Amino acid sequence: MSITKKSTVRSAALAVGLGLVALPALSACGSSDADSGSGGSKTVTLVSHDSWAVSKSVLAAFEKQSGYKVRVLEDGDAGQAVNKAILTKDNPQGDVFFGVDNTLLSRALDNGLFQSYEAKGSDLVMPEYRVDQDRHRVTPVDTGDICVNYDKAYFSKHKLNPPTSFDDLIKPEYKNLLVTENASASSPGLGFLLGTAAKYGDDGWQDYWKKLKANGVKVVDGWEQAYNEEFSGSAGGKKAKADRPLVVSYASSPPAEVIYADPKPTTVPTGVATGTCFRQVEYAGLLSNAENAEGGKALLDFMLTKTFQDDMPLNMFVYPVSEAAQVPPEFVKYGPQAKDPETLDPAKIADNRDDWVKSWTSLVLK
To answer: What span, in angstroms and rounded, lies between the C-alpha atoms of 57 and 244?
Structure first.
């Protein structure tokens, strides 16, 4: 998602950026941190990127049923969080890591970040999101699409059609309008890079980025800065007087602009360039050397329950992966999944990601 929020994204970070509204989900995570200690058999610690969020009542039900108190440690953008988790894998900060997505999954698995555990409910995960089936080191939790979002008011004011595809973004009429995240440090930034690699292939993506750079693309560190400080279509961007009407974000960002706005707009203020989407899947896993492995297993089981999967979309602005879950109507109306997103085989990502990022850095940042 991830992702997320996703990231992100997405979820809590997105909601705060949108309306600067305190969410019940954030209160739940905060109280868990305060009430639990530094560990112990009755505390299970979740390490995540900044976009983890769950409704207070849902988290409380899990804690009552399982007997475990949940402690949440948020570690920045997904890319940063994964890198830190790898560096601390021999003495992990927690028991479960949430938020590694398909763009970074091979890095986590190759570095031995997770131990094997097949979560209850895995049989209900949609087949297209299942990976690592021989060892079950990660559990699919959510999915979403990384896409360019656009500020409807800007394009209406300038009597300009918003872009719909990767090809559009390099046209002169969109010069100096796009902001994206650093592909070497940000999950959505990396997802956007991979989307271009999937679209244009090994021989074409670098030429595309040369043209995108020449067309004035702006690169910032992470999603929060891109979406809430640089993008003119977001609530945060409006407050910051942002001047970029195109941003790499998520297909689920427009619903958030409606749901958390106060007052609510009569129409959604942002749209999605559906021909720029890359499908993201986020996973959770039981950390190697987890102090409370049993609590970690219980938490992973919880993430695949219908209760959590139904609750997740409107908290983390991602789609559920369980066939038993229901998608909220706000998503169907304002943030449907892309019908034909770009995708890459995980093995292809694993073989090329580091080289692609290195080349991208040389092309775009230097």
So the answer is: 38
* Alpha-carbon span 285 to 219, nearest angstrom: 31
Q: Which residues 6+ apart lie within 8 Å of 281 measured at CB?
A: 1, 2, 3, 101, 102, 129, 131, 140, 142, 143, 321
Q: Phi first, then psi: what are they for 159, rounded to 5°?
A: 50, 50
Tokens 């094997």, located at residue: 116
- What single-letter DSSP state applies at residue 226? I
Cβ pair 217, 168 in contact under 8 A? no
For tokens 């997740």, name the residue.
312
What is the model's pTM? 0.80
Could you write out the three-class secondary structure of 106-157?
HHHHHCCCEECCCCCCHHHECHHHCCCCCCCCCEEEEEEEEEEEEEHHHHHH
The single-letter code of the amino acid at 66 is S
* Structure confidence at residue 5 (pLDDT): 35
